[in-house]
Amino acid sequence: MSAPACDILGQLKGNNLYEQYLKRLPDTERRKINARLVEKVSKCSYSVISRKNRPKDQVERAYKNIRQVIIDKKFEKVELGLRYMRTSRMMLAHDYCADIESSLYLDAMRMELIS
Q: Residue 29 and residue 22: Cα distance in Å, rounded?
């Protein structure tokens, strides 16, 4: 840690460090402190959020492709196209959740074996 950061951390004392004092700091300092905390903690923790963000782009691309196909098809009834879009969105969300759940189960089993 650099000297100014140590001084700032030394000034931040209290019952609830993050809520009371960290919000008063400028955005750059807050981001630096949060980045350091995440860096220190990330070695010993498992981030579900980063695991969830990985396949999101694939799902979004798949939905855009499906949407474009439905738009290009030009159904006689607009309701039919909208139904296809709702159904495809629901199916993609279900597949996404199933994929995330299966990968989290596998990671949980690996972590149990390690500990």
A: 9
Is the separation of the CB atoms in 98 and 106 below 8 Å? no
Alpha-carbon dihedral sign for residues 14, 20, 24, 30: positive
Round the CA-based radius of gyration of the chain to a whole number and report it. Answer: 23
Contact present, 41 and 33 (Cβ < 8 Å) = no
Task: Quick: pLDDT tens for 44-93.
Answer: 777 777 788 878 889 999 999 999 998 898 888 889 889 999 999 999 99
Contact 62, 21 (CB under 8 A): no
* Band of residue 21 on the pLDDT scale cut at 50, 70, 90: low
Task: Give the phi and the psi of residue 99 in degrees, each rounded to 5.
Answer: -65, -45
**Residue recorded with tokens 């396949």:** 55
In angstroms, rounded to a whole number, what is the distance separating the alpha carbons of residues 91 and 86?
A: 9
